[in-house]
Amino acid sequence: MILVFDVGNTNIVLGVFDQDKLVTSWRIATNRRHTADDLGVLVKNLFYFRGLEMSDVEALVMSSVVPPLTPAIVEMCQRYFGKEPLVIGPGVKTGMPIRYENPREVGADRIVNAVSVASRYGVPAIIVDFGTATTFCAVSRSGEYLGGAIAPGIGISTEALFEKAAKLPRIELAKPGQVIGKNTVASMQSGIYYGYLGQLEGIVRRFKEEIGEDAVVVATGGMAKLICSETDCVDYIDPDITLWGLKIIYERNK
């Protein structure tokens, strides 16, 4: 079995692969203060409740956009699994040329997603990840990572609206019944929901114009289903593309 970690600013997503099957996955809150032992106990309990044996894990792979937490996870892998994890970063073979001015600036998760989508859905491709930040990535027909766009995530924007506008309440993000809200909460939900929907459609359209041809569009992340349910500009919604990308990159580096 292969255990993969996608370490994000809000959540850590873990997945277990048995050959070409994603056996199970978990999503836990990111805590930058976790130690290797905290994480080890947590993973041990996750395995126990799913009836899995930690001794069956043959390899571990991780991508991380939270540098302070990376050493703790590496130490946890060494201490509790007795293995050195493959950490996605410079020097790791991904099979995808990066046409960024400074390739080291590109978040590991964005490259992993691009590799996954190119392998599983084809190219050219556009990947939209609704995470702490909303990221858009473009892959050319020749399989090159072209770059992308980064915008504040839906959660960040919603919280900022509450914190910076004294008379606006904290709201639950939901699809409103109509665009023209009849009260403050409905108006805020409309602005956030349809604002991000417009952002999605606008950036995807402009990406396709710059790529110069049509492209498959794949969305992922916690808010993907909610936002993408109202548009036909997204071809696929896949919550597990990062996990699959980690597995694909591991196989290219064995």
Care to give the gist of this entry?
With 254 residues, this protein is α/β, with parallel strands linked by helices.
What do you see in this structure?
By secondary structure, the protein is α/β, with parallel strands linked by helices. The protein folds into two domains: 2-87, ATPase, nucleotide binding domain (Nucleotidyltransferase, domain 5, 2-Layer Sandwich), CATH 3.30.420; 122-239, 2-Layer Sandwich (Nucleotidyltransferase, domain 5). The chain is 38% helix and 24% strand. The chain is built from seven helices and ten strands. It has helices at residues 36-49, 70-81, 108-120, 154-164, 184-211, 224-228, 241-253, and strands at residues 2-7, 11-18, 21-29, 59-64, 86-87, 125-130, 133-139, 145-152, 216-221, 236-237. A five-stranded mixed sheet has the order 3-2-1-4-5, sandwiched between helices. It has a five-stranded mixed sheet with strand order 8-7-6-9-10, sandwiched between helices. β4 (59-64), α2 (70-81) and β5 (86-87) form a beta-alpha-beta unit. α1 (36-49) crosses α2 (70-81). The longest helix is centred in the C-terminal third of the chain and has 28 residues, at 184-211. It starts with a strand and ends with a helix.
